[in-house]
Specification:
Radius of gyration of chain A: 53 Å
Mean pLDDT of chain A: 70
Low-confidence stretches of chain A: 115-149, 157-165, 213-219
Largest sheet of chain A: none
Order of helices and strands of chain A: HHHHHHHHHHH
Largest interface: A-B, 44 and 54 residues
Strand content of chain A: under 5%
Mean pLDDT of chain B: 83
Oligomer: heterodimer
Number of strands of chain A: 0
Helix content of chain A: 40-55%
């Protein structure tokens, strides 16, 4: 018995035997087998071997086999404890309230806080009571009640620009009552010379002229 | 090259359906699965040289398969998976029976003699010659040859069942076929 040189066709003879070829391939293999003595002989041999193997196989006892099989493990669907629907809605509402409230709070806090605080500008703007306020360690030098440090006012209004020169001759401890006519005029001129629109966004200024109330010397 | 139709496509799906039914508690699905594959497993056992207790071997194969069905991923067909399990059981048996010679695993050197003694009921001379030719194959050749000829498995499926490569399965088949022809031509 010879081997056909067409190994591809020979490879498919068992598939032809078991009808596992698609129609086109089956037709091609059949055409070859019809014309090839060796392949016809091999196909016949395959049929014989197949028949022999089938005939030699003892009949198996299906019931005997099934009887030994493990019982089906019926796996009931897992019951997942489901929260009531209203509970879900309450959670969603709580999350929404927290999100909105938190966002609002963040916005409010951001608006109340100066975004940029330039201490070089803010510090001179704040006209505070003199260092003789109650509780101050330097109370001995506190100015009399009802007086405001002219130097601080001058510093405030002339913190920048030409104002510094106009009031430069003022004594650092001068009070409004101590200024003469010329000095008062110079101070007013400096005030008038201030720019109408500040260069920077005005910061809240706390001017407390309540020295009378806070001064230990009283009126 | 080889373009077999995956004729088992619907069969494979049927197996998967039956497995799902069995897992859901349908005992009849197990019976149908056994009916569909028991004969093929028995053929493979006999072709591989097993003669005694074929029922037990097939039964053990199914028991092991059903006990580990959760591990069956469907990468191969259910039948190929069964062949794989059965082959492992066969190897285990052969190891356990190594000292006992009451099995019909025929050694290549004395296969003809043992075969004649064990299979005296075979009347047909052609069939007897065929059986002898197959019995003379090496164990691996015999497994591949049986799965290819008796079951019509593709080389890919054979490779999965036997634990080899597709190319090696093809070589084993052609070597087996050549050996059978040569024996019959003697």
């Amino acid at each position: 018995m010879n081997d056909c040189p067409n190994a591809d066709i020979r490879d498919q003879l068992p598939d032809l035997l078991h009808d596992r070829l698609d129609m086109s391939m089956r037709a091609a293999v059949m055409a070859h087998v019809d014309a090839c003595v060796d392949c016809r002989a091999e196909l016949e041999l395959l049929r014989s071997v197949h028949g022999m193997l089938v005939s030699r196989t003892p009949r198996v006892d299906i019931e005997y086999i099934v009887g030994a099989l493990p019982k089906a493990r019926s796996q009931p669907a897992r019951v997942v404890a489901r929260r009531p629907m209203w509970s879900d809605w309450r959670i969603a509402a709580a999350v929404t309230v927290l999100a909105v409230g938190g966002g609002s709070l963040a916005v409010l806090r951001q608006g109340a806080t100066p975004s940029v605080v330039d201490t070089s500008l803010v510090a001179p703007m704040a006209v505070q009571p003199d260092a003789g306020a109650p509780g101050s360690s330097t109370g001995a030098t506190a100015p009399p009640a009802g007086s405001t440090s002219v130097a601080r006012i001058a510093t405030t209004v002339g913190g920048s620009g030409a104002g510094e020169q106009g009031v430069a001759d003022l004594p650092t401890t001068a009070r409004l009552a101590d200024l003469n006519e010329r000095q008062l005029r110079a101070l007013l001129d400096e005030i008038d010379a201030l720019q109408a629109v500040p260069i920077t966004e005005p910061e809240p200024v706390t001017i407390r002229l309540d020295g009378k109330a806070t001064s230990p010397e009283g009126a | 090259m080889n373009k077999p139709v995956r004729g088992g496509g619907s069969d494979d799906q049927r197996d998967l359906d039956l497995i799902a039914r069995w897992k859901a508690g349908d005992e009849r699905a197990a019976t149908e699965l056994v009916e569909r594959h028991a004969a093929a497993l028995a053929r493979f056992a006999v072709s591989s040289g097993e003669r005694n207790e074929v029922d037990e071997l097939v039964q053990d194969t199914f028991v092991r398969a059903f006990n580990s069905l959760d591990g069956f991923r469907g990468d191969s067909s259910f039948r190929t998976w069964l062949f794989t399990i059965e082959r492992r059981l066969l190897l285990d048996r052969r190891r356990a029976d190594k000292r006992r010679r009451d099995r019909t695993e025929l050694q290549e050197s004395d296969s003809a003699t043992e075969y004649d003694a064990l299979d005296s009921v075979v009347a047909d001379e052609t069939q007897r010659r065929l059986q002898e030719a197959v019995a003379r194959l090496s164990p691996t050749q015999r497994e591949v040859f049986a799965l290819r000829v008796a079951e019509g498995l593709s080389y890919k499926e054979i490779a999965e069942a036997v634990g080899t490569t597709e190319g090696a399965a093809r070589v084993h088949y052609h070597n087996a076929m050549r050996a059978v022809k040569e024996f019959l031509d003697e």
